Automatic annotation (TrEMBL):
Superkingdom, natural source: Bacteria
Species of origin: Marisediminitalea aggregata
PROSITE patterns membership: OMPA_2
Keywords: Membrane
UniProt domain OmpA-like: residue ranges: 468-585
Protein name: Outer membrane protein OmpA
Keyword NADP among UniProt keywords: no
SUPFAM superfamilies named among the record's database cross-references: OmpA-like
GO cellular component, one term: membrane
Gene3D superfamilies: OmpA-like domain
């Protein structure tokens, strides 16, 4: 056993000596710790690794995804650190891009908002808008939703995604392949037009223009532009804002899922065919749906409701026209005697009349009925007043006279012709009542055909009252003349008729006493002209008055006419004819003293 171990120990010593010799030779050749060889080896290693590092990372990422997990934290920390150190520089670089994106987003939103608002406003102030409001109410939906449903009727027939750099069609889908347009030709055309717009219309090198919409008579092409691809939608009708957003979102998702194939695209479209499923979801349409039948009384047909509304409107228009015509007719009516219309007005579908009416006039209802106007359509507000119109005065006088059965009255334009018989007492009472009527002085009462008999039952007081009444009326009567005039006009003759009636009444009262009163008619003149001529003129005036009284039935023997010439008065008061009574016993104490 010891003999066998001895040779083995010798061999170990010799090998150690050999290794020490080799180490010494290595140090001489490569230096301590291979310091002469390390630079050359490191260079060779870097060259070798640089050729395979990318492939190695890709293979490792595909194998377990660990590369992404390791690099993401490193990149995030690097970005955070870079932003902290170079904040201003990074903001300045991103500002043009972010600003352009914000402006485009805000512009698109405002365009869609204004367009939709404009369509709603245009539809609101029209007959179509009124119909839409009614149908929205009938369907039980909001008006704005109904307007949107009516305005945005659309259908997307075809979708294309085109490679932005090369203009090559990547993928396309169509709702009906038999009616689809040539996708390759369409994509080439759009890219050419878009390049032309970008080159010819772009205003500066920092901005870029592109098409967003191409309209034809039948189809509208909606274009959404992305960094690597362009989405084109062939639309029939008008897309609402939410569908526009859906198209933009689809394009963004396409870029997200196919970012690497888009960046490395060299003409192979096989990797993009799987995107057809995403695009098919965008082949949407909006057809007008039949509204649900409303419940209850809302089931009334639209045409019947419209007919009722039209009928109601026609009735309202007819009533308004009728009311206006009736108002104008009332305003054009002449006021009847004893009625004064102050105001005619319309209010709440009624005509209101405010008027003044004398108690002797016909009622307002009778007046309206006489003119063919239904008084039920008019509200009358009436206030009393005293009328002095001749017709009303005649009517009031006639009512008084009609109370005496022995009298008859004949109405003329401005006079009352009395006939029949009555006593002096009745005549006195009638005269007193007639004098109380406002405006009676403008009416002539002709009593020449009236027979007044003496009333034996009159006591002394009643007789004296009658005599005093007529005496005052006769002595206070006067007839005035114009300068150098002696003829009586129609008005003067009418007044002399009243005086004749008073004289005859007085004579009838005094007839039972046997005394016949004398009436002295005194003519006068003013101081204009020659005194002798004026005296003769005064006598002529007195004679003219006497003849008029005789013609009215007064006995000529009871009248004495004389002229006294000039009176010391220069106005019309000097050119008159006065009356006095004889014998003096018929005059009152005051007249005798005068």
């Amino acid at each position: 056993m010891d003999k066998q171990d001895a040779p083995q120990h010798g061999e170990d010593d010799s090998s150690k000596v050999a290794e020490a010799s080799l180490d010494k030779v290595r140090q001489l050749l490569f230096g301590q710790d291979d310091r002469y060889l390390a630079p050359s080896v490191d260079k060779q290693v870097r060259q070798s690794v640089s050729g395979v590092v990318s492939e190695a990372l890709i293979e490792r990422e595909r194998k377990d995804g660990s590369v992404n997990k390791i690099l993401v934290p490193l990149v995030e920390r690097s970005i955070d650190r870079s932003i902290e150190v170079n904040r201003d520089k990074i903001v300045g670089s991103l500002y043009p891009l972010v600003g352009s994106l914000v402006r485009k987003a805000v512009s698109a939103f405002l365009v869609d908002f204004v367009e939709k608002t404009n369509n709603i406003i245009e539809s609101s102030f029209s007959v179509r808008g009124a119909m839409w409001r009614f149908r929205a109410w009938q369907a039980g939906i909001r008006y704005s939703d109904y307007v949107a449903a009516q305005i945005y009727q659309y259908k997307i027939d075809q979708l294309l995604i085109i490679h932005r750099e090369t203009g090559t069609l990547l993928v396309s889908v169509a709702a009906d392949e038999s009616k689809a347009q040539d996708a390759d030709l369409l994509s080439s055309m759009l890219v050419a037009i878009n390049d032309f717009v970008a080159d010819a219309i772009t205003q500066s090198a920092s901005s870029e223009s592109s098409l967003h919409e191409v309209k034809t008579d039948a189809v509208t092409l909606q274009i959404k532009v992305g960094p690597e691809a362009i989405l084109v939608a062939a639309v029939v009708g008008k897309l609402p804002p939410d569908v526009q957003v859906k198209l933009q979102t689809t394009l963004e998702e396409f870029h997200h899922f196919y970012n690497q194939p888009l960046a490395a695209y060299e003409g192979d479209n096989s990797e993009f065919q799987s995107a057809q499923g995403v695009l098919i979801d965008c082949l949407v349409s909006d057809k007008r749906e039949a509204y649900r039948k409303p419940a209850g009384w809302k089931k009334i047909p639209v045409w019947l409701l419209l007919l009722a509304l039209v009928g109601f409107g026609c009735v309202q228009v007819y009533q308004n026209i009728e009311l206006t015509l009736l108002t104008n007719k009332l305003r054009d009516l002449d006021n009847p005697p004893g009625i004064i219309v102050n105001r005619v007005a319309e209010n709440d579908g009624q005509i209101h009349i405010s008027l003044l009416r004398d108690s002797a006039a016909m009622s307002a209802t009778a007046w309206l009925a006489e003119k063919g106007i239904d008084a039920n359509k008019v509200t009358i507000s009436e206030r009393p007043y005293l009328s002095v119109e001749p017709a009303i005065v005649q009517q009031k006088a006639s009512q008084l006279i009609a109370e005496i059965p022995t009298l008859e009255v004949n109405l003329q334009s401005d006079s009352l012709l009395l006939s029949g018989q009555l006593s002096s007492q009745q005549w006195l009472a009638l005269n007193q009542s007639l004098q109380k009527i406002p405006g009676i002085d403008a009416l002539t009462i002709d009593s020449r055909a009236l027979k007044i008999s003496a009333n034996q039952s009159l006591d002394v007081v009643q007789r004296e009252a009658l005599i005093q009444h007529y005496r005052n009326r006769i002595t206070q009567f006067a007839v005035t003349f114009e300068v150098d005039a002696s003829q009586l006009n129609a008005t003067q003759l009418a007044h002399l008729g009243d005086l004749a009636q008073d004289i005859l009444a007085l004579q009838a009262i005094l007839s039972d006493t046997g005394s016949a009163p004398k009436i002295l008619i005194i003519g006068s003149s003013d101081q204009t002209g020659v005194a002798s001529k004026n005296k003769a003129l005064s006598a002529v005036r007195a004679e003219a008055v006497k003849r008029a009284l005789v013609e009215q039935g007064v006995p000529s023997a009871s009248l004495i006419a004389t002229g006294i010439g000039e009176l010391p008065i220069d106005n019309q008061s000097g050119r008159m004819v006065l009356f006095t009574l004889f014998p003096q016993s018929l005059l009152g104490a005051e007249d005798v003293e005068q």
